[in-house]
Write a structure and sequence with these properties.
The chain has about 180 residues and is an all-alpha fold. It is built from 9 helices and no strands. The protein is globular and about 50 Å long.
Length: about 180
């Protein structure tokens, strides 16, 4: 596969945007080179993701489970691969990662983890989270945590759509 548009030259970005990009886990990633085509909007877009992650009110693994589920539902191999790698590097069992490709259940996830995954899943598929899922999520998460889960879900829905619409090339998997 080849991207539908040329990747932007990251060296041509303004210094402020380069500094924001440097805070990312893979600052030279193809997704960032594609997003950099947004010109002056690149920095603010990247800042949003960076600030959300830096100030995350939910556990990082819950965040990553939600992202991987969003990526799988969005059929975004690029985003799924990047975030599955993170899960593997952080000791998450392969069966648990594979379960995120299907409809995950209590066999692999705790009730709290599953509440977050279902919350993200329903945002992607149904726009509005059902009363049942919302009540379960409220049982495990504060209002701030639920908002962070929502913001993360929506942020990665956008990332998935960018990756897929512009056919961002997969990068080789990083060594474990």
């Amino acid at each position: 596969m080849m991207a539908r548009m040329a990747y932007a030259d990251l060296d041509a970005l303004d210094e402020e945007t380069k500094a924001i990009l440097a805070t990312r886990r893979s600052p030279g990633g193809n997704i960032f080179k594609m997003i950099a085509n947004a010109g002056k909007v690149t920095g603010p877009y990247l800042t949003y993701g960076t600030e959300l992650r830096k100030n995350l009110a939910i556990d990082i693994l819950i965040y990553e489970f939600a992202i991987v589920r969003v990526a799988n539902l969005s059929r975004s191999a690029y985003v799924a691969r990047q975030h599955e790698q993170f899960l593997r590097k952080n000791g998450v069992d392969e069966d648990k990662i594979l379960a995120l490709r299907m409809r995950p259940g209590l066999k692999y996830f705790s009730e709290a983890e599953l509440a977050a995954i279902r919350f993200a899943e329903e945002v992607v598929l149904d726009v509005k989270v059902s009363d049942e899922t919302f009540a379960l999520a409220q049982k495990h998460y504060t209002e701030e945590q639920l908002m962070h889960l929502m913001l993360s879900t929506c942020h990665y829905m956008l990332a998935c759509r960018i990756a897929e619409t512009f056919e961002v090339d997969l990068q080789p998997a990083q060594p474990e």
